[in-house]
Design a protein that fits this description.
This protein is of the alpha/beta class and about 240 residues long. It folds into 2 domains: about 180 residues, Zn peptidases (Aminopeptidase), CATH 3.40.630; about 50 residues. Helices cover about 25% and strands about 25% of the residues. It has a 10-stranded mixed beta sheet. The chain is globular. It binds zinc ion. The site of zinc ion (ZN) has 4 residues, from loops.
């Protein structure tokens, strides 16, 4: 029988949390036949590196004949995802961000998929920032990413395990409900810019999902110190009725 769900772990080869957690869930009898699981970037996973030749999560849509491994792999993953109703791409972070959903392509279908999880924070991350272009999930027929951090903390791992099992137990009944019913108690954030550097007199550091103010501008911070080219990404909260 065809399965609804494909989980992908280690699209970034050094983000092992998704692999470890999904393989643990897969051993349990009741979940065994419910989904398929693949490693996004097996070469980088083996070497415990983010990627080998090109960042896979910037390589989409890719090309099956490309000279670069990750460009070929991006095309393969997008092709595989077409056989599933939902594709969930699992990432791990070093920051204390907790477990949240990233929607790279905010179509009604992808936002509805995000609403099926018992995860209160949903981040819309459009490719407005040059360094964040062409993630694999953007090109999937219906796909989202789940980010979890700090990825090596046992609490983060059990939180991810809980939400994935909760999703597997309940997604069918939640599919029958409306988006707005499923979104009760949740929040949507939208990334709209980058904080390149903190002002010299800044007394505070931004923290993940905390409200921060620089030069009179209020924003919620994300990916704090995750990249060399910026201090963090800037987000604002987005009302649900402005999503579509
Ligand atoms: Zn990642």
């Amino acid at each position: 029988m065809a399965k609804d769900i494909l989980f992908i772990g280690a699209t970034h080869g050094d983000e092992k949390i998704g692999v470890d957690v999904v393989q643990k869930i897969q051993k349990r009898e009741r979940y065994k036949e419910q989904f398929n699981f693949i490693i996004g970037n097996p070469r980088a996973y083996k070497e415990n590196k983010r990627f080998t030749q090109y960042d896979l999560n910037r390589a989409a849509p890719g090309n099956l004949n490309d000279a670069l491994y990750e460009k070929r792999r991006a095309a393969e993953l997008i092709e595989k995802s077409k056989s599933y109703k939902y594709t969930i791409d699992l990432h791990g972070s070093t920051t204390g961000c907790g477990v949240y959903i990233i929607v790279t392509n905010p179509t009604p279908e992808n936002l509805f998929l995000a609403s099926l999880f018992n995860i209160p924070r949903i981040v819309i991350l459009p490719s407005v920032i040059p360094d964040l272009v062409d993630p694999v999930s953007k090109y999937m027929s219906c796909g989202i990413e789940i980010e979890s951090g700090p990825q090596n903390l046992p609490e983060t791992r059990s939180a991810l395990e809980d939400v994935l099992q909760d999703f597997l137990n309940h997604y069918k009944e939640r599919q029958e409900k409306s988006f707005f019913e499923n979104m009760q108690g949740k929040e949507v954030y939208e990334v709209y810019g980058v904080l390149h550097a903190l002002p010299k007199d800044a007394s505070l550091r931004p923290e993940e999902f905390k409200l921060f103010n620089v030069g009179g501008e209020d924003f919620y911070a994300l990916f704090v110190d995750a990249y060399t080219y910026c201090t963090c990404l800037k987000m604002r909260k987005k009302p649900f009725d402005q999503l579509f």
